Amino acid sequence: MNVTTLAPVTARQAAERLEREPCTIRKWAQRYQARVLGRAGRETVFDFADLATIEWCIWASREVPATAEDRDELRAARRAATA
To answer: Is the domain covering 8-82 a CATH 1.10.1660 domain?
Structure first.
């Protein structure tokens, strides 16, 4: 099992880092069940690594894995392949 540090971000923060619109991030989070870490006031806090993996899959025209755990495994496999 791969243990990673969770990187909490709001949709707005993720949008800035991924150069997307916040509404796009929220739609991805809904569509692909992105890992939710909690809330900060009125905003939902997501795991940035999970959102970045979703973004990479979309950009690379790959099927987005169904669960956050499957996306964790994909990230681990990609890291191992580049190491």
So the answer is: yes
